[in-house]
Specification:
Layout (H helix, E strand, L loop, with lengths): L1 E12 L2 E6 L12 E2 L2 E3 L6 H13 L5 E12 L3 E11 L12 E6 L13 H9 L2
Parallel strand pairs: 1-6
Antiparallel strand pairs: 1-2, 1-4, 2-3, 2-7, 5-6
The structure holds 8-OXO-2'-deoxyguanosine-5'-triphosphate.
């Protein structure tokens, strides 16, 4: 099975988290699903380097702080095995623009469950809720 390794940012402004919606995709299980911004780690990059690069590419966003690893999820999608490393990050503004995603929401932890998340994100969402 193909393996994909990605980093993802749980971006906080005060007590809200930035959630982004993926565009339409031929893979129905990720098409138009909500996720944490990020993307694939490239050859030779550290996780933090990949995260900073992806946040600039997708959002023109520079976090004021990135915490240590929050959680790594391994999830088997029908077409590939995903390893996703998530990091809490902090923003000094709620004004973040989207270069690739089709919509975004700032939600408190208790409201995260209202979105239609990519399956691999559900363990992260659940851990955020448990830690509240
Ligand atoms: N960034 C990110 N990807 C996620 C999450 N949940 C989830 O299932 N994924 C999956 C969707 C994609 O198959 C893969 C990430 O690929 P991507 O398309 O965002 O990464 P990328 O920009 O580096 O990819 P590329 O299109 O440039 O090759 O991980 C998530 O919360 N954040």
């Amino acid at each position: 099975m193909k393996k994909v390794e990605v980093v993802a940012a749980i971006i906080y402004y005060k007590n809200e988290i930035f959630c982004v919606q993926r565009p339409k995709n031929k893979l129905s299980y990720i098409s138009e699903k909500f996720e944490f911004p990020g993307g694939k780690i490239e050859k030779g990059e550290s996780k933090e380097e990949a995260l900073r690069r992806e946040l600039i590419e997708e959002l023109n966003f520079y976090p004021i702080k990135i915490d240590n690893l929050f959680e790594t999820v391994i999830h088997e999608y029908p077409d590939f095995e995903l390893t996703m490393h998530s990091f809490k990050c902090y923003s000094e503004t709620k004004n973040i623009r989207l270069n690739e995603h089709i919509s975004s929401e700032w939600l408190t932890v208790k409201n995260l469950e209202k979105l239609d998340w990519a399956e691999a994100d559900i363990p992260i969402v659940n851990r955020l809720i448990e830690n509240e």
